Amino acid sequence: MDAGAELESQIGQWRGFVERHQAISAADVDEMEDHLRNQISDLSASGLMDDEAFLVAVKRMGDVDSISREFAREHSDRLWKQLVLMPETDRPGDHPARRDLVATIGFAIVAGVAVKIGSTILPENDFARNVGLFVLPFLTGYFAWKRQMRARTAAALLLPFAVAAVVLNVYPFAEGNATEIIAALHAPVVLWFVVGVAYVGGEWRSDRRRMDFIRFTGEWLVYLALLGLGGGVLIALTIQAFDALGMDVEWVVEGWILPFGSAGAMIIAAWLVEAKQAVVENIAPVLTRVFTPLTTVMLLVLLVALAVRGSVVDADRDLLILMDAILVLVFGLLLYAISARDPLLPPDVFDRMQLILVVSALAVDALMLAVMLTRITQSGVTPNKVVGLGMNAVLLVNLFWSAWLLVGFLRGRAVFGAMERWQTRYLPVFGIWAALVVVALPPIFGFN
Length: 448
Fold this sequence. Notes:
The chain is mainly alpha-helical. Helices cover 79% and strands 0% of the residues. Helix 6 (96-121) packs antiparallel against helix 8 (136-146).
């Protein structure tokens, strides 16, 4: 990469971080970027290299958190409007936020209709296997519409859904067998990457946009969980109220509210992440600061428990599945923490905590990999063992290099941007692995 491209990449990372401090409007960010570029130009003219000029200019700009707080104080009225109102527009009749909300509701209703029809006409097992195909195409469509993707590009995004539909419904799965369950669990993972391509507006090669999608995924899951909890409480109270009146409404809840509510919540959660980016801080930094230490302690305690137990080769399969689920959770938390961090800040205590978390996860992953290999040697190959082995191997590579990069960053031999690039560029490996599991694994094991 030449010096000019490297400088533009650094400015892009800086701008991306500033844009996440949403007390600052797009116009404010443009003004700040112009000032930054002028500073870089002046410093370069005085003899500094581009990367040196960039670092000095950023330092002179001041701490972005302080700038964000200053904007928050000066524009408190703007912040309240961003929290609870649609933004005002300068042109009469131009209501982009309102149109966005109407479109969101439309996509949510259509997704709910699809889920309702699918749950009505398909047997329960077939519907469960295809559940991702009833919602994720509409979430993809929402982002394709929002990003104003070209019709041809948006239409191309339908191809993976068509392939998934063929694989999930033409393959002669034996009902309830391992390959059917594995395919059903991994198909939504593959299709989520299609949602990601729509989310980034087709800019999948951009590291910054991939990181934006990682951040979106974490916040989407948080909003979805909140909507689910709130909806569950509301439904329970409603049922109890009607029961007190001697009226049975469970059939309405099961037949209509749950299909439309579950599908609609996925679309609404995406809209919330997008719409409420205009608030001073997003929730990523708060969640990572709370859950990273807690998860680290949990992993360390788990490692001690495994050491006390001795051999885990003969452990129950449910324990191994739970351990892999914990590793996936840890990896997700790692990605979320990386997406929330200012890459320009120096190492701190939280980064050291991150290293302990990654090393602990790496130890657990290596142990699980050894257990999988031993069980395969002792009792042969099964679809579940192959999936577990592959997933642990993919995670092992990621965690090992993540630990290496974190050590380099803490010692001052690498920049944090290297960690971001590693994660965003490794991300497609998970999608490729999930696609192989869905498409290739079932026929290899005779669909059993």
